[in-house]
Structures
1.
Amino acid sequence: MKPPSLSFPQRNTQAGLSLIELMVAMLIGLFLILGVTQIFINNQKSYLFQQGQVGNQENGRFAMTLLSQELSKAGYRSNPAKSFPSGAGLGCSFAEDTSVIAVSPTALCVRYQAANKNDVNCQGTALSSANQDTITAPYSKQINPIVIEKIEYDAASKSIVCTSGTVAKQPLVTGVAGLRFEYGSGPGDLKAVSTFSATPTDTVGAVRYTVLMQSQGTASVRDDATTSAALNEWNTRFGDSLVDSNQIYQLVQGTTMIRNQMQ
């Protein structure tokens, strides 16, 4: 009789990952991480580009509206039958019946008479109580108080600023890389514009303004390394040498005829 054989239960053994399998898994994971990171970077650049464009468009529209609004006031008289007397203010000397003074290609002075007691200047400041008291009725044929404003470009803050009265310069539009005024003038007896120049010799009858908007921030938002077409056009037109900072640039331009200076 044979003795019973001893049997032991078999164990389910599992082998670990080999070094090659681990390296392959890590390589696949690395490719996935790189892909997700690249998608994130592309989406971020696209977002910054769109935000830069939207910001330029909004600021550009506001700059055009603001300049048109202030220049449209220039030359307003409460009594059109009476001429503007000569005068001075903010470093600008106005001859009789002159409403706009060309200070430089980036600065000008305008003057007008307040239309009513609720008028405000380019800084949003209301007339003084004494000036308000001189206006007895809105748009009446009297000599209302004269308001003088100076609008110019401030390169340090990259903004269009305004000065009026004794109040210091106040930024009106930010995100501006450049501003140029071109003054339209012609024979004074005809009151017609025949040429535009940065240094007019006759009475200014129109003002053409060009603004170079620049997206704000320090992040690079353009993929290509070529100079912006808008910046190239600006440098070519005005003989400037602005350096491309890889931001979004946009040119906006408008023209305003000066009240009481044109036929």
Note: DSSP finds three helices and eleven strands in the chain.
2.
Amino acid sequence: MDTAPEQPSSARVLSPARGRAAVLAVAATTFSVVTTEMLPVGLLSPIAVALHVSEGTAGLAVTLPGLVAALTAPLLPALAGRADRRSLLVGLALLLALADLASALAPVFAVLLAARLLVGVCVGGIWAVAAGLGHRLVSARAVGRATAVIFSGIAVASVVGVPAGALTGQLAGWRWGFALVGLLAAIVAGLLAALLPPLPAESAVRPAAFRAVLRLASIRSGLLLLALLVTGHFAAYTYVRPVLERAHGIGDGAISALLLLYGVAGVAGNFLGGTVSARSPGRALRTMAAALAATLFLLAALGDGAAVAVTLLVVWGLAYGGVSVAGQNWFSAAAPRAREAVTALFSGVFNAAIALGAAAGGLAVDRAGEPGVLWLGAALAALALAVAARARRTGG
């Protein structure tokens, strides 16, 4: 899959300035929803203490939204029918704000989990709609960069959003962390309503649309490739802290700075990947898979040496940072007339792979220690590279 996404012939009515503002509003939405999804990572201990559960049980606040999002992403566009996509995004942003408020006020853990279930609906729905909007907001030549900006919400959330929420929780209590991201989601809903044009559905997404795109070899190859790559990444990255501490002897005090460095590299990788994949998504994903496999292999093979580990961590961030946007460009190129259907499938598989990767990494670290998650991640990335290479040879 080495062709740039085909652009629809429908005329665009937004001025360049209005288009850029609309793209930034959608990027703020992805930033908001990813920050909300990952916020409990930095707040697990105080949540567990306050709601009288173990930290392992509190981790369900991270796992549940991913599983629900995997189901919601393909279902919600079909259920929404021909509803205006601007109204749908505004409604989901408001639901996200409500879910965050419910989380902040949760008296018991069961209420928090119910609120996080709503977060999963928002994650799946927002990504299914927002990820493919670039071509409807800007000119054809700017679609690649617009898509990269929309997906930058993922990387920026890891660098700014989640640490800011964790800091708020540390200074004022974990409930204020959720309240802050809830306020952000409400502001985002207002921005979407003000800056997005009407976005009628390009076509109703019916079950037949999913069956039709799944008949395409390039779609099947892309879904398998992304599933392997994302599962491998999260199998290893979920346990990156003990890997750095125990396998590479990096002190606890340096971990936060290194994770911030990884996040900055991820932001750079997102825009670099967006630029390259706008021209050739297949080449971009092959390069990312090769770099990720090599990086994880070297981290596993070189069991000491902090300087080497830091260098490889930066390469890891650069390599994985562009996976989401390159994947979106792959699917847009493979099925340009069914963008919402393929984006929904992409989002569903992506979120399922996140949950699967974290679970697989847990099994690996229990049975083989910290190096085990790196070997697993490297193997899955190598399999993803093999799938990408085969797709290139077969034209799929």
Note: The longest helix spans residues 339-394.
3.
Amino acid sequence: MFKPEQVRVAQRGWLELMNNQYFSEALINVDGEEVRVAYDIHDASRVIVRRMNGDYVCDAIWNGNKQAAIPVNAMQDAMEKRRIRRLKLNDDHRREIEAEGRPVLESKPVQSFSEFLGTPEPVPVEKPFFFLETDRDEYLRKNGTHHK
């Protein structure tokens, strides 16, 4: 019935699909061309190869797999990826739980920034300096003293 398809490029009679390599002599006729590869998600031993317009080319047989000793079907591949994702999620939860169990570092409150740095606080200037007499008069008016 329904088989998922992927687009691949045929090279010297070989096709690669999900780290499996498939061979057929008829693939030499479509060498270097993009072809549609239909595969069964439960059986990785053979794939159906069609041209991009839908014309049947051949059935390619699994052979020469470089990754595993047996062909890996799509279901096994998906289950392995799901297992890896679940393990990673489990590790993330474990790290979060362990972080919640660690005590928070206690520290005494710092009174002022200068105490934190260890330098004495600056001594306020008792008598401000003014460049202009108008600035001096305005300062005296704001402070509530109108004496000159």
Note: The chain has a mean pLDDT of 83.
4.
Amino acid sequence: MRLTTLCLSGSLVLALPAFGADTLESCITEKNDTRRLACYDRIAGRAPRASDAVSMEQSGPPAHLRVTARESRGSTLSERWELAADDKRGLFLFRPYKPVYLLPLRWSDNPNEQPRGYTARSTADEASPVKQIEAKFQLSFKTKLLENVLGDNGDLWFGYTQQSNWQLYSKGESSPFRETVFEPEFMGVLRTNIDVLGMKWRFLNIGVNHQSNGRSDPYSRSWNRIYAQFGLEGKDFALLVKPWYRIPEKASTDDNRDILDYMGRGEVLGIWKRDGHVLSLTLRHSLRLGEVSRGSAAIDWAFPLQGFLKGHMQLFTGYGESLIDYNHRQTVFGLGISLAQWL
């Protein structure tokens, strides 16, 4: 009896490989990454160590699959500012910053035909014809200059943004650029990762910003700021809170010393992203009451067209749509395309 049992057991053991033999077809159809790799190893005659199998199961899918999954969810504040170790890309690479767009159609309900500043010398003597419809575009990038200056934290970035208003349809005036604003800045970014009000406070950004239109009187406008930016993040949503302090200038040369009462003393930017759509709301305010309670609101909506190309709609109302218009109130609607967004 014992001999019979041993013979049957041996026959079953010998038969098992035949019934469960690995083939290329069976490996290809295996959906689990770990088991599929083990199947190929068995065909090649390589027996993986037990520790390898455990390590693979615990670590999840390979790195390239993890990156693909993250990218499918869209960019996050960590990816945009390279806060986590997996998001680091090195120094001196061009990275997205503010939205990059072209609006061939930009319509204003109240074009600024006679710009005025705080002083007489910064106010135009007479009005100039400005068409209600013009073109507008914005270019923006940032690059990292230093990394981990505070142990494993703290990066130094340089950012640059250029925005132009182009009287494209003013053929009689040779289609001039009505206004171009240059905005370089340096930013120190600290990773925080603190839970705040159901969101994750990702970073603190301390920056120095210069903004000017590079023109002479009476159209010269410029200011310098020190700011702090708090970046918070939730599901499909980011919130950037940015108060600033204007660096004082000499009264004899300051032609827009009242700019804070129009362009505001800070801004709040909310960004929603889902299924390729990016919707942002920017609010600025003077943080004052009474006659100097002024500000602006802007809504940008980018929607999918083809690949990275998106359609772009922009609605702005209030003061400071451009630097030459810092104290001019208007409502503006623009339509065009964009190549990069906040997220």
Note: The domain at 77-340 is CATH 2.40.230.10 (Outer membrane phospholipase (ompla); Chain C).
